[in-house]
UniProtKB/TrEMBL annotation:
Name of the protein in question: RNA helicase
CDD domains in the cross-refs: SF2_C_DEAD
Keyword Transport included in the entry's annotation: no
Entries under SMART domains matching the protein: DEXDc, HELICc
Motif placement: Q motif: 107-135
Keywords: ATP-binding, Helicase, Hydrolase, Nucleotide-binding
Domain Helicase ATP-binding: 138-329
GO molecular function ontology, one term from the record: hydrolase activity
Domain Helicase C-terminal residues, every copy: 354-509
Start and end residues of each DEAD-box RNA helicase Q domain: 107-135
EC number(s) reported in the record: 3.6.4.13
Keyword Hydrolase tagged: yes
Source species: Gryllus longicercus
Length: 518
């Protein structure tokens, strides 16, 4: 059809869906004048403040610009596989509201049923109103529903499950006397020790005023606990998955009275690295739907809450082995699986030899402005090298990776949190669950190759309570990195959620091992 000649005008310009629909009309229905008018409208889309800004202005993307369903969308990163593209860049600019703590003005913690003692603690933390994920999450959990809480990082998911859990524990304490030591009413499971400690600290803020006993268990000391166990009253047990599996299997903890299980960072727990241990544990419980306005603790069933910033496509397949999925109520937010509109991101196409100089330049600029910087890399060796490289060039820097001793690692993170150092080099160990509200500049020295890792890393800045003018820099070198960047750019241009939000830690580890041993 001759009308299709106008699907593409110029090498890099693609018509909007409206123009595409006109192009599908027979020639006798579309005059040349109408085609010219529609083309001009497309050219006159708001071009004052582009959402995506590139070296080649013809590839800029503007607010209100759209593309046809079958149109070829122009990408600034399209030619980045070619060696001559080194030095190119594009920027996704701030096109949304600044991320302040979004609250629900018509709902209060008190109306949700949160105990008055807990509300006082929240007020001391300057949290006066619940966020949307907390409003819906607290309601569903208190009704006894199995619940999936999925929201962007920093949206308040921890308190969304912790506050109703505290109320449930208070109810259970008042109705049923404790029968055994080391027999918790609730278990919060995490993939990492750092996250377990962080959740435990948050829970202990309420323990004294509510009379709730919180115990935190992490790896590194399980053998000593097995050989010389201690027995105490425990209401909430917060534990990393590895330590919990050993201590339950050996009988140190009795799970016969557990009424609620929380999987924090559920997407990671359901990945290949952990799901065998997790499923073995979950199969020991009976997850049945509960009814009624309030959770009936007397029923022989366990409530489960799943918490994550991403929902992998494999979640249903894996969980279906242990949990009736039709009983799980999904509570999500509008920004799930989307880039943060209030945090600008700049993508640099660099050769590997160009990255160190650019790293030093960006980090020194941030340090001069006193902007705390978090740098991510894909390998432990790179993480350590970045720290040494910056120190040799006069930049005080700490590093964080999974090969470190746990207590040494925890000390490094606290150095950064306390402001003793303003630059932290980390692997993906620091990308999930940790409260990095100080971070103002996030830099991906190695760009991730999985979408879930990209989302979690970017979520370390621009959080509720973060400073203003946070920003993200990405170094992009390899073919897999470029492929992911192109998918991100395409989603932004089309105004769609990020696709294929999956991660597979085991495959990542195998890929890196094989790459290192080529």
């Amino acid at each position: 059809m001759k009308g299709l000649w106008c699907l593409r005008i110029g090498q890099n310009h693609v018509l909007s869906s409206r123009l595409f629909s006109v192009a599908r009309k027979p020639d006798f229905e579309v005059s040349r004048k109408e085609r010219r008018k529609l083309y001009q409208e497309e050219r006159n889309v708001q071009k004052k403040d582009p959402i995506i800004s590139c070296k080649n202005e013809d590839l800029n993307h503007y607010k209100g610009q759209s593309y046809g369903k079958f149109a070829v969308v122009p990408l600034a990163s399209k030619g980045w596989l070619h060696r001559k593209s080194k030095g190119d860049f594009f920027e996704i600019k701030n096109y949304g509201e600044v991320q302040t703590r979004e609250t629900s003005t018509d709902t209060s913690f008190q109306s949700l049923g949160v105990p008055d003692e807990a509300i006082k603690v929240l007020e001391e933390m300057e949290i006066n109103e619940p966020s949307p994920i907390q409003v819906d999450g607290i309601k569903h959990i208190l009704k006894g529903h199995n619940t999936l809480l999925a929201a962007e990082t920093g949206s308040g998911k921890t308190f969304a499950y912790l506050l109703p859990l505290l109320k449930q524990i208070c109810t259970y304490q008042s109705t049923t006397p404790r029968q055994k030591m080391n027999s918790p009413y609730a278990i919060v499971i995490t993939p990492s020790r750092e996250l377990a400690d962080q959740i435990g600290e948050n829970a202990k803020l309420f323990s004294e005023c509510l009379g709730i006993n919180v115990e935190v268990v992490t790896g590194g000391k399980t053998k000593r606990m097995i050989l010389s166990p201690t027995f105490k009253e425990i209401d909430i047990l917060v534990a990393s998955i590895g330590a919990l599996s050993k201590l339950i299997t050996t009988g140190i903890y009795d799970i016969s009275h557990v009424k609620h299980i929380v999987l924090d960072e559920a997407d990671t727990l359901l990945d290949d690295s952990f799901n065998s241990k997790l499923l073995y544990l979950l199969h020991r419980f009976s997850f049945l739907p509960t009814t009624g306005a309030e959770l009936q603790f007397q029923k022989p069933c366990v409530q489960i809450s799943l918490v994550s910033a991403t929902i992998p496509t494999s979640m249903n397949e894996i969980l279906g082995e242990a949990i009736p999925l039709d009983t799980v109520h999904r509570v999500t937010t509008k920004h799930l699986h989307c880039i943060q509109p209030h945090v600008p991101q700049k993508f640099f196409r660099l050769g590997r030899s160009q990255k160190p100089a650019e790293l030093l330049n960006l980090v020194k600029s941030s340090v001069q402005r006193r902007d705390p910087v978090l740098i991510f890399s894909n390998k432990t060796a790179t993480c350590d090298w970045i720290s040494m490289f910056l120190k040799e060039n006069g930049v005080k820097c700490s590093n964080l990776n999974g090969d470190m001793n746990y207590y040494f690692r925890l000390g490094k993170f606290r150095e950064f949190q306390s402001g003793e150092v303003d630059v932290l080099s980390s692997t993906d160990m620091g990308s999930r669950g940790l409260d990095t509200v100080r971070v103002k500049h996030l830099l991906n020295y190695d760009f991730p190759i999985y979408m879930a890792d990209y989302i979690h890393r970017c979520g370390r800045t621009g959080r509720y309570g973060s400073p203003e003018n946070c920003h993200i820099s990405h170094f992009v070198s390899g073919a897999l990195e470029i492929d992911l960047v192109q998918r991100i750019e395409l989603a932004v241009r089309r105004g769609e959620p990020l696709p294929n939000v999956n991660a597979n830690i085991r495959r990542i580890m195998e890929h890196r091992y094989n790459k290192n041993n080529l």
